[in-house]
Amino acid sequence: DLKKLENNAVPIAVLLIKDDIYVNYDLSQAALKHIKNVRVWQHETWQHDALRKHGKEVFQKLLTLTA
Known about the structure:
Layout: H1 2-6, E1 12-17, H2 25-32, E2 38-43, H3 50-66
Parallel strand pairs: 1-2
């Protein structure tokens, strides 16, 4: 629901991977434009498994973005 996303009051942090093999970057960018209160961390080299491979770094960075 775009109206709800545009009025979001909860801080959201997102890891957006430029060359993700499963998630379309352009569609993700378009969707993020509708979400109020979102902070985006873009990564150029990681892949879809970034949470598994770099979990500690991912969580620490996303937590700092929502603080």
